C-alpha cells in the first residue's frame, strides 16, 4: 500500500538525497549546489537548493542560519517567478517559527504556503503546510480545532499511499489521544506508524513513533526497562542522522520515564542534558518541558518547597506567554502532585 518514504524538500539537483540522509551531508550537498546555482544565475535552482540548506540548519538546531536560508530561498524563488518554490520556502520558515515558539508567525507563514502551494499546483507543499498548521494547533493544545484537520490529512495521505505523511498524521493524532488519556488508542496508532515507517525506511518517523510507544509503555504499563529500550533504539537513528531536536526530545522522554519509575537522580541528570540541548537550539517548548521535569525531580530530591513553588509559578507564566496551553495544564498538575496548590503556597510565590 505504501511506497518507500521520500523527502520532497530535497529538490532540484538534490532529489537523489534520501529521507534518511545525514543532515550534515544534506547541508554540505545543499551548500555546494546553492553556490553553483548562484554562480550560474539559476535562481530557481538556487531557491530549491536553498530549501534543503534551510531545512538542514533547522533540524540541526542552527536557528539563525536556518532563518537566513529560508528567506534567501524565498527571495530566489520570487525572482524566478516559481510559485511552488516560494510556497516551500514559506513552509520551511513557518516550521522554523513553530520550532522557535513563534506560533502566530508560524500560522501566518504556513497559511500563505498552503495558498501558494494550491496556486502553484503543488499538492505536496499544500499538504505539508496544512499539516504544519495542524501541528501548530496541536502543540498549543487546541485539539478540538485541529483534530478534524489531522484526520483529513491522514485520509488524504492514505489515499495517496504517502508513507511519510501517513506516519506524521498518525503520530499527531496518537499524541492527542495520549494527552487526553486514551492510552490504548494512542498505542495502536503509534504502533501502526512505527510499522509503516519501518517498511517505508523512514528512520525519522520511526524514531518519533518509538518515542511515542515508549511514553505509553511507561505511563500505562509501568514497564520502565522496555520504555528505555525503545528510546535507545530511537536514539540510534537520531544520532545517525544528526537529528538534534529529536534527540533532545528523546533525552527529555528518558527523563520522564525515569521520573515515573522513581529514579529521580537519573531523571534530574537527563532533564539537565535535554534543557541544555533545547537552549542551544532556541526551542522554547522543549526547554519549558525540560524545566518542568527538572523542577519536579529536584522537588522529589528534597528541594525547598518555597523555591519549587516559585519556579513552577515562573514556568506557568512563561508558558502562558508562549501560548502552550497543554504544557500550562501540565504545570498545574505538577503543582497539585507536589502539594503546592494550597493557598499558603500560592501566597508564597505572588
TrEMBL record:
Task: Name the coiled-coil region(s).
Answer: none
> Which InterPro entries does the UniProt entry name for this protein?
TPR-like_helical_dom_sf
Gene3D superfamilies on file: Tetratricopeptide repeat domain
| A Pfam family it matches | TPR_12
Q: This protein is called what?
A: Tetratricopeptide repeat protein
Amino acid at each position: 500500500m505504501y511506497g518507500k518514504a521520500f523527502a520532497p524538500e530535497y529538490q532540484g539537483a538534490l532529489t537523489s538525497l534520501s529521507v534518511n540522509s545525514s543532515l550534515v551531508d544534506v547541508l554540505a550537498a545543499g551548500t555546494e549546489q546553492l553556490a553553483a546555482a548562484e554562480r550560474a544565475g539559476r535562481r530557481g535552482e538556487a531557491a530549491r537548493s536553498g530549501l534543503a540548506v534551510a531545512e538542514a540548519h533547522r533540524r540541526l538546531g542552527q536557528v539563525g542560519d536556518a532563518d537566513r536560508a529560508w528567506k534567501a530561498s524565498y527571495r530566489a524563488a520570487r525572482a524566478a517567478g516559481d510559485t511552488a518554490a516560494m510556497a516551500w520556502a514559506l513552509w520551511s520558515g513557518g516550521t522554523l517559527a513553530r520550532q522557535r515558539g513563534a506560533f502566530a508567525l508560524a500560522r501566518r507563514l504556513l497559511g500563505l504556503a498552503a495558498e501558494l502551494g494550491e496556486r502553484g499546483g503543488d499538492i505536496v507543499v499544500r499538504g505539508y503546510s496544512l499539516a504544519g498548521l495542524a501541528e501548530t494547533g496541536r502543540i498549543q493544545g487546541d485539539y478540538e480545532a485541529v483534530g478534524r484537520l489531522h484526520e483529513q490529512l491522514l485520509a488524504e495521505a492514505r489515499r495517496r499511499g504517502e508513507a511519510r505523511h501517513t506516519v506524521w498524521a498518525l503520530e499527531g493524532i496518537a499524541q492527542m489521544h495520549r494527552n487526553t488519556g486514551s492510552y490504548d488508542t494512542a498505542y495502536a496508532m503509534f504502533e501502526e506508524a512505527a510499522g509503516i515507517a519501518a517498511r517505508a525506511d523512514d528512520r525519522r518517523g520511526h524514531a518519533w513513533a518509538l518515542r511515542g510507544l515508549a511514553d505509553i509503555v511507561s505511563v500505562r504499563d509501568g514497564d520502565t526497562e522496555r520504555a528505555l529500550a525503545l528510546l535507545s533504539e530511537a536514539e540510534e537513528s537520531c544520532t545517525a542522522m544528526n537529528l538534534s531536536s529529536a534527540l533532545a526530545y528523546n533525552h527529555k522522554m528518558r527523563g520522564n520515564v525515569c521520573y515515573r519509575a522513581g529514579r529521580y537522580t537519573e531523571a534530574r541528570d537527563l532533564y539537565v542534558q535535554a534543557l541544555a540541548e533545547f537552549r542551544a537550539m532556541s526551542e522554547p517548548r522543549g526547554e519549558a518541558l525540560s524545566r518542568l521535569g527538572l523542577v519536579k525531580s529536584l522537588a522529589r530530591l528534597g528541594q525547598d518547597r518555597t523555591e519549587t513553588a516559585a519556579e513552577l509559578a515562573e514556568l506557568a507564566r512563561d508558558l502562558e506567554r508562549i501560548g502552550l496551553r497543554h504544557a500550562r495544564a501540565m504545570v498545574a498538575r505538577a503543582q497539585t502532585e507536589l502539594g503546592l496548590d494550597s493557598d499558603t503556597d500560592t501566597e508564597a510565590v505572588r
